[in-house]
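FAQ: What does the model actually see?

It sees only this:
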Amino acid sequence: MFSIGDKVVYPMHGAGVIEAIEEREVLGERRRYYVMRLSIGDMRIMIPFANVEDRGIRQVVDEEDFKKIIAILQEKKSPMSGNWHRRYRVNLDKMKSGDIFAVAEVVRNLVRRDQEKGLSTGERKMLDNARQILISELVLVRDDGPEQVEDLLSKLLA
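And it is asked to produce this:
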């Protein structure tokens, strides 16, 4: 399904590059794994071949989708529940989906809410996580550094 050098996204963790395919014995069973290095930080993740579809791992978006993400970030926020718990659940489901457009909506909506009313501690952590996931993928799309992508996001969301 994927090859060494492919740029992929692991939902809730971020984007990275497949740097190896290894076979390991775990609990007496031999399995093949993708070894993925995340684009931000120095973390490596081993993903069993058998779990790739279940986990929603996908290729990084292309330049055309990058433009759509920019447009989403520039839009006004979507209507959100006034109830913190409902809002948190909806945003968490969007992030778990692995859909980069949904993650961009979460970032945009939480930034706009923070500008208007502030965020709870849980929502602030969610914003930081969503932002890192978004940045990790955009870094690979643009072949830019995290600082440049972070600057771009800050300008778009100001």
